[in-house]
Specification:
- The complex is a heterodimer of chains A (245) and B (338).
- With 245 residues, chain A is α+β, with helices and mostly antiparallel strands.
- Chain A is built from 4 helices and 19 strands.
- In chain A, α1 packs antiparallel against α2 and α3 runs antiparallel to α4.
- The N and C termini of chain A lie far apart (56 Å).
- The model of chain A has no long low-confidence stretch (mean pLDDT 92).
- By secondary structure, chain B is α/β, with parallel strands linked by helices.
- Chain B contains 14 helices and 10 strands.
- In chain B, the strands form 2 sheets. A 7-stranded mixed β-sheet of chain B has the order 1-9-6-5-2-3-4, sandwiched between helices.
- In chain B, 41% of the residues are buried.
- The model of chain B has no long low-confidence stretch (mean pLDDT 84).
- The chains are: A alpha+beta (245), B alpha/beta (338).
- β19 of chain A pairs antiparallel with β10 of chain B, so a sheet runs across the interface.
Amino acid sequence: MFKAAINAELLKDSIASLAVIVDEVRFRISPEGISVKAVDPANVAMGIFELGSAAFDEYSADECEIGVDLNKITDLLGIADRSDTVRMELDEVNQKLLIDVGGLSYTLSLLDPSTVRAEPRVPQLELPAKVVLNGADLRRAVKAAEKISDHMLMGISEDIFYMEAKGDTDKVRLEMGRDQLIDMKSGDACSLFSLDYLTDIVKPTNKINEVTLSLGRDFPILIDFAIANGAGKISYLLAPRIESD
Amino acid sequence: MGTDIGDLLQKKKIELSYLANRVVAIDAFNTLHQFLSIIRQRDGNPLQDSSGRVTSHLSGLLYRTASLVEVGIKPVFVFDGKAPDLKAETLNKRKEVRESAREKWETAKADGDLEAAYKYAQASSKVDQQIVEDARYLLDIMGIPWVQAPSEGEAQAAYMVLKKDADFVASQDYDSFLFGAPAVVRNLAITGKRKLPGRNVYVDVEPESIELEETLKALEINRQQLIDIAICVGTDYNKGLEKVGPKTALKLVKKHGDIHAVLREKKVEIESLDRIRDFFTSPETTDDYELKWKKPDHDKFIEFLCKEHGFSEDRMEKAFERLKAAAGGRQQTLDQWF
């Protein structure tokens, strides 16, 4: 059983944050809320998503798992108003999700969860350094890097957090000291990341006040932030590129 | 070419991606020879540019290397130096085979027998000085390192793996084991659909890896005994014993302990036996090399392949992009962090 109502914009943002990683996911539904773990087909980026029942206007559910094509939901939410309420109810027998939004009733066919890639295991990483910054700053650095290169270096050097991109001839660098950051735990950190992935991942952070980056040397980056006024959380794990000379 | 002990070895099928992030020392001569023999038109003619210069090796080297670096393999090509005088007879014989194949190719072409033409054309392939120079230049502008061996390339490649500068030797021959290579990959240059020689049958060729230690353990012999077995069967430096294949050789060497005892028993001699054994156990090698993978040089790449050798500019731009992307660093995957 699953029956819930939620603000359309909040749902849209949540779906968008997952859609940057994969098209098809398994929603793990429980009385506490919805969670998703998904990894992109190339095993480079992982998204761990949790939306607690508090994020919903109404919420009641038993344990169940459904397979969802995110593109379909994105499309249907595209016509909804930001302030609309989306009502959802699961028809378990027929494997349909009934969605009411803005006076329209959709019947969405679900995917057989067994045909959707299984939830990935999450690597346990010990990341020595941590930076908390404003999402807009992160987004700005990534946008600047995109103009020059297809990958970006992130690291910490003498208590300065830097993001740097080098092209064939040009270079762009953003440095942030302790006073410009919300928080920092200094450590040995310097890793290179593909902007193909990073650009998509940081897109939703524009509106986020606090984004936490956990970093190491030639190690994956963990990007965490809260959604739905703290009732939900998204973590991305992105594998690095290793540079050759 | 090389010694025929393949049946005795413990071969494992591998995926190309198994070699990601590994340094593979490729026997350049062997690989170029394969390109020259495989990359041909239907009548057996190699690919040629407008001035009639052979370009099969360039095409092979470029595309094959690109697909290796794309999966994250770090190739280094090892070129033969001066062949030891022990090899003179083998080299003369190869030359004879090539020359007779060339004649038969011409005849087959004149007779319109395409299948025979192709076969003889393949057998007439020769890696000459120009081919070697072209290959080195192409590797330079592709940013791929190469090493000049003082003597046999396979010996140098084996030495580099023993020194842990490389992880695998890549060659179709088995000689690098005799030179002590701990691990060898085969079929690296020819992975994919391949026509069986002389038959109109295609097979899927997959890369395979062979580990020396594992093979020796399975056969219950040591490396010196493997060398002795190879000498019994025949190597580039000696003719084998009459009617002795790899299995018989294994039995003989295990029974008698070493080749001296085998020869005493059979009452035969092998010319320069001790020199051949010494050559396998301590071949001439060099430390004079630097393994650095660099970014490919766009202007020189296009100039050499398109302007000089008439490759399509469109296709070469794409190939260059592949090389450049691979040289720019390697995207890791999350499963490396479990």
